[in-house]
Design brief:
The chain is 27% helix and 21% strand. The chain is of the alpha/beta class.
Length: 214
């Protein structure tokens, strides 16, 4: 999964050092970066994935992934379990290079009167602004509106990315500019829309004038 950075400026609430570092990673990636070097769109059994968090991290270590984020739907349970396992593994394997794990979650939101998914990265999991979006289900009312989702992610020091923009009931040509107007930080650019095995980005690509990143 790769992302186009929507703009070079940071949110009005300055992101954490982790988010700043993640922006730099995003800006350096290409379609070839995933899944062997970085992967920023993965699910575990805590939502609709097949792997336990520890098994996912074991695979990442085995193939030499440099960085990743677990983006389960409306929960950080998988991320928290993976983080604890990774810290324990590092303690017992001193000197071994391990992947960097950023916080992540996938959030349902309303954009142009259709439901889209927003990927949140490198946010503070305990921040109060994120609480409505970490309850294992989609929100309603004001909290479901995309501008409020993006604002909550920014308040928690994170980055907001529009997931798989060509997968919705409305054209990505409409959705991407609308998301950018709402303050989105990036767009998922390389996505396996037809779910191939082994994984590879779909031939369908999203191109904008933005800088390529993840």
């Amino acid at each position: 999964m790769a992302v186009n950075l929507a703009h070079d400026s940071v949110p009005s609430t300055a992101p954490s050092l982790n988010a700043t570092a993640l922006r730099q990673v995003f800006a350096s990636l290409t379609a070839e970066s995933c899944p062997k070097s970085y992967n920023f769109h993965m699910h575990t059994v805590h939502s609709d994935g097949r792997l336990q968090p520890n098994a996912l991290i074991e695979q990442a270590i085995a193939i030499g992934v440099q960085g990743l984020a677990i983006t389960d739907h409306h929960t950080i349970g998988g991320y928290q379990a993976a983080k604890a396992w990774l810290e324990d593994w590092r303690w017992n394997n001193p000197g071994v290079t391990i992947p960097h794990l950023w916080s992540g979650v996938e959030i349902n939101a309303n954009l142009l009167d259709i439901e889209v998914h927003i990927l949140a990265y490198s946010f503070q999991p305990e921040h109060s602004s994120m609480k409505p979006y970490l309850q294992r289900k989609a929100t309603t009312g004001k909290e479901y509106q995309v501008n409020n989702v993006i604002a909550a992610i920014h308040e928690a020091g994170g980055l907001a990315v529009l997931a798989h923009p060509a997968r919705y009931k409305r054209s990505h040509l409409d959705l991407i500019p609308a998301a950018a107007e709402k303050g989105i930080d990036g767009v998922e650019t390389f996505y396996a829309y037809n779910n191939p095995n082994p994984w590879r980005p779909s031939d369908f690509g999203i191109t904008t004038s933005a800088t390529v990143g993840w």
